[in-house]
Amino acid sequence: MIDLHIHTNASDGVYSLEEIVEKAENAGLSAIAITDHDTVKNAAKIRQPDSGMEVIPGIEVSVYDNRLNYIDIHLTGLYIDPGKPEFVGELDRIERERDAQKRAIIEKLNELGYAISYGDAKKHAPGSLGRPHIARALMEKYPREFHSIPEAFQKLLDQGKPAFRSRTSFLCLDEAVGMIHRAGGLAFLAHPKVYEDIRGYGMEKLLEDFRRLGGDGIESFYDYASNYGWRGYGKEATRKIIEEFRGYAERYGFLESGGSDFHGPNKGAKLGAFPVPDVLLTRIRAARKDL
To answer: Is residue 168 part of a domain?
Structure first.
């Protein structure tokens, strides 16, 4: 099995790159991708392990596209070159905007009566600050109200919830795809069912737009049960969603990717527990050779 959607402590994951590699090897995975949010600080440190397991440099990029009305769409980029100066410079700009957004969220939480500071959240973030770090700060200070990260998102932090604040400068969908391509990578629409069920976006339009703007594939295999169980997704629902998006991939001519979206022990998904067939990676490698 493979896992092409994993976060480290360079963004909002718990474990270091070295710890992730060790855990993935112990889980018997044949390949993994490091896809931190808007940063390649750990992807740039990848060294292939002696075990033969492949570690793929990747990224998860956030899209806020007011032209197409897509807010908080995520793309994973696989096989990127994390050392390209133009790419790194663009990510530095995005990280500054990402940090400003998190400060705005904390300010709104304060207005809502939650007395947490930037420092309270930052102590949970060895790398860039993300909403899960803010959720951990809420859990720490208000343990009776918040028992898990998904609960904090459901009550306050997700799009449309009282403390959510959007970014003030935007990376549009075509810009995100182009940025990934210029870094030598392939662009995949991450956890696509989220955008239909939670964001309310029409799937046909989103997939048409993504294909038209050069998108390469969709994350047809995704552990919705572990990451979005609070939305009512169970294992059977996840199985049906996988079948649905495998059909979309065939219909639109997309490559397929898949992963657990593993962040650590506090966010549901377990490394090595969600089955993603390695034939998907065989097809991705073949597509790279055709570029």
So the answer is: no
Angle (CA) 188-192-194 rounded to 5° is: 140
Using CB atoms within 10 Å of the CB of residue 203, give its burial: 0 to 12 exposed, 13 to 18 middle, 19+ buried: middle
CATH number at residue 22: 3.20.20.140
Say if residues 213 and 174 touch (Cβ distance below 8 Å).
yes
pTM for this structure?
Answer: 0.84
Instruction: Quickly state the pLDDT bin for 258 (edges 50, 70, 90).
Output: very high
Q: Where would I find the beta strands (DSSP E) of the chain?
A: 2-6, 31-34, 54-65, 70-78, 186-189, 217-222, 255-259
Quote the domain boundaries for residue 214: 2-64+72-81+173-290
Note the pLDDT tens digit of each residue in 159-170: 889 999 977 767
Decide if 194 is inside a domain. Answer: yes
Number of domains making up the chain: 1
